Amino acid sequence: MRRVRTSRERTVVHVPLGSDAIHLKVRVRSYECVACARMWHDDLGTLASGRTLLSRAAVDWALRRVALESASVAACARTLGCSWNALDRAVRAAGMRILSESDPYGVVTRIGVDEHVWRHGASGDRYVTVTVDLTPRADGRPARLLDMVPGRSAQAFANWLEARGARFRDRVEVVAMDAFFGWKQAAARMLGTAVEAIDPFHVVHLAAGRLTMVRCRLQREATGRRGVKGERLYDCRRALLKTASLRTPRQRERVDALLADPVNDALAEPTATRRCPELRSLGRTLKRHRADILAYFTHRHSSNGPTEAINGRLETLRGIAMGFDNLEHYRQRSLIHSGRIKDILTH
């Protein structure tokens, strides 16, 4: 035989009605057994998880807004009328639970790898290595973020590949990357049969970088300092990186005047390339990555463009969140923002 020993009121944040917050006042009763004096209380597990102040429906509502509408956690917390800390913990936990119940690495055959700066400061590691699933591109679907790890090195990428297991590594056929040699080293060591591919964008980016280095060197040789406004080399810094068809009339005039300057006649001599260390460096880099560059033309959907797009989305995420100071929180929010969770929530 049981009897009610006591009761207490618990407030649970629920799904808002329009812009109005809904807080449920729930009476939780505690019972005791008359015969053995054992105690228990009402189970609210179907309403809320554990001792959280948020209902399951409220967490799901916030997760969908954060993942599908790129809403900030702060905006969702204001609408729900709860604290940012409580909602942030609940959203990240719900997102990671959904991802853990799926198999994000099961059908991956093409991956892209790149790095970006996740925080700005003098202390701590500023870079993360980002791995993206390019497999959906074959069906016309968007690429999805697979994971990110701290650091920017061959070892960081190799450790991530090793942690995925042999089955995952055996399925990977193509690795899209930029010309950073660390990615190639890690892929060659951990993915013996996979093809490394570098798309034309990164090849052009290499050449543009060397051109900028030449311009800066010529500027220092001529003036002994960095360029300033009003000097031809400095004023043409952007126009030189544009193809002729995309230059404005003013940019064409500036470039023509620069190339017509007798001071630069020596650059047009056949032997000028021998005195250009930047060009020799570019040649060595292209020779080292020759097979990777040609692989782009023989393997479809091997562009690393979707990886660059994911990096752009993550930059937007950092703006929405007004920055992050915890790498693991940033990783989890990134997976919610740009990972497979979108496909799971919409299907």
UniProtKB/TrEMBL annotation:
Residues forming coiled coils: none
Domain named Transposase IS204/IS1001/IS1096/IS1165 DDE: residues: 111-260, 273-333
InterPro entries named among the record's database cross-references: Transpos_ISL3 (IPR047951), Transposase_DDE (IPR002560)
Protein name (record): Transposase
Species whose genome carries this gene: Bifidobacterium pseudolongum subsp. globosum
